[in-house]
Specification:
Strand 6 and strand 7 form a beta hairpin. The C terminus is likely disordered. It is globular, with a radius of gyration of 16 Å. The chain has five helices and eleven strands; from the N terminus they run ββαβααβαβββββββα. 33% of the residues are buried. The chain starts with a strand and ends in a 12-residue tail after the last helix. Strands 1, 2, 3, 4, 6, 7, 8, 9 and 10 form a nine-stranded antiparallel sheet that branches. The protein has a two-stranded antiparallel sheet with strand order 5-11. The chain has a domain of 127 residues: Jelly Rolls (Sandwich), CATH 2.60.120.10. The chain is 22% helix and 34% strand. It is α+β, with helices and mostly antiparallel strands and 187 residues long.
Length: 187
């Protein structure tokens, strides 16, 4: 189940609010300038599907976003608990950073946790299968996939080079909860 927890950025141990209903999550994130949608595949995706199969299943949604938002490229990232570089990959995303372009991720399978730092608040968003999150350029955030990552995500970029982070140098991400392995996301 998708989840949004909102914290005061000085109080990582006490959430101000928690939401589980998609409409409420979408409403709260929209008020903060964050896109949060649910997509449905036009065809079923089998475990181990190729990048081309995943993109084809969501082609109409991808084309809509590419046309309306100017995205230039799309790819698929897939990680499982036995990936040999999982710890290195996890560490790459755990510190607060920004991007010079929107970061858009659609979760085809599994789960990941985006945490956004906006206007004195921290928004912890557990994204699961069917969730799309759009983090606007310049938004301080971090991403966690847990110690046992399991997710397949479509990524959209305006920059042809793909993911480029600008780290803020703060330690705020270390003060907030990390994602724990989320067994309900494994189907």
């Amino acid at each position: 189940m998708s989840r949004l927890r909102i914290y005061d950025d000085a109080a990582p141990n006490a959430a101000l609010a928690e939401y589980h209903e998609h409409a409420a999550i979408s409403r709260e994130l929209a008020a903060a300038g964050i896109r949060f949608e649910q997509w449905q595949a036009s065809q079923s995706i089998a475990p181990g599907a190729s990048q081309a199969e995943v993109i084809a299943a969501y082609r109409s949604d991808i084309d809509r976003l590419m046309a309306s938002e100017g995205y230039q490229s799309v790819d698929v990232i897939s990680l499982q608990p036995d990936h040999p570089d999982r710890a290195t990959l996890r560490q790459k995303f755990l510190d607060e950073h920004t991007h010079s372009e929107d970061e858009v991720r659609f979760f085809v399978a599994g789960a990941g946790q985006f945490t956004l730092h906006l206007n004195g608040k921290v928004y912890e968003v557990l994204c699961e299968q069917g969730d799309l999150i759009g983090v606007p350029d310049g938004t301080p955030h971090w991403f966690d996939m847990s110690e046992s990552p399991y997710f397949v995500a479509i990524r959209l970029f305006t920059n042809k080079e793909g993911w480029v982070a600008n780290f803020t140098g703060t330690d705020i991400a270390t003060r907030f909860p990390r994602m724990t392995p989320h067994t309900s996301a494994r189907r």
